[in-house]
């Protein structure tokens, strides 16, 4: 009951996810060694773009860790890892500008981001409960539990799918803003694209795994109904 042909595709997607994570680290480690022509650090780039968009009230803070960079929509703060905050490399300005892209999305009420924020409390609950419902359904051969588990798990899958346009849009904004502000020169654009595209791939892989898992559970559910 626990093995399903879809497991093979899920394993492939999981392998893609592992590869994507290595690619992110590899690209970051490569381009963090390449200095920018402007000499601006990630923190300076973030501050310049935020100010150009009237987001003077959004602070830029440094946080510990590697690739721990993020935008906090609740506190409205751009948080950058030390290597990005202090670094004046292609990788540093790419990541910094990407996170600022999320702050601008928030300012402009970008549809996918707004929906993602509204879904978060629900998904935070359902994603924690869904595995137990599905496991209980399989152990006790209860289609009802499996069905409820699928509904709960669907919310988490939808959240990850909605994350994709949010991340791609933030990267697109980052590249355009860096060019517009004179932060990135044309010859540096290739490095910026490689850093941002590698990061986007991790979100694609995560969403793919979730979608395939959902399809698997739905197929099991309907197969169980036919056997009754």
TrEMBL record:
KW S-adenosyl-L-methionine (keyword) present: no
Transmembrane segments: 122-140, 146-168, 200-222
Protein's UniProt name: Zinc metallopeptidase
Keywords: Membrane, Transmembrane, Transmembrane helix
Organism field: Bacillus songklensis
Any matching Pfam family: Zn_peptidase_2
Protein transport listed as a keyword: no
């Amino acid at each position: 009951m626990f093995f399903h042909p879809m497991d093979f595709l899920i394993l492939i997607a999981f392998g893609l996810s592992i590869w994507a994570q290595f690619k992110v680290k590899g690209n970051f480690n490569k381009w963090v060694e390449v200095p920018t022509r402007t000499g601006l650090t990630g923190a300076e780039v973030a501050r310049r773009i935020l100010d150009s968009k009237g987001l003077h009230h959004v602070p830029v803070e440094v946080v510990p860790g590697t690739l721990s960079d993020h935008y906090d929509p609740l506190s409205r703060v751009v948080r950058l890892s030390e290597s990005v905050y202090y670094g004046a490399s292609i990788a540093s300005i790419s990541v910094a500008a990407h996170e600022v892209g999320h702050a601008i999305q928030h300012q402009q009420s970008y549809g996918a981001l707004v929906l993602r924020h509204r879904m978060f409390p629900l998904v935070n609950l359902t994603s924690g409960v869904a595995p137990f419902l599905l496991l209980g359904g399989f152990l006790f051969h209860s289609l009802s539990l499996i069905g409820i588990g699928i509904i709960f798990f669907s919310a988490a899958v939808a959240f990850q799918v909605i994350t994709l346009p949010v991340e791609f849009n933030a990267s697109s904004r980052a590249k355009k803003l860096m060019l517009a502000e004179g932060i990135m020169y044309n010859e540096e654009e290739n490095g910026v694209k490689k850093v941002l595209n590698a990061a986007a791939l991790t979100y694609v892989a995560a969403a793919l795994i979730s979608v395939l898992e959902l399809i698997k559970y739905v197929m099991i559910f309907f197969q169980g109904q036919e056997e009754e």
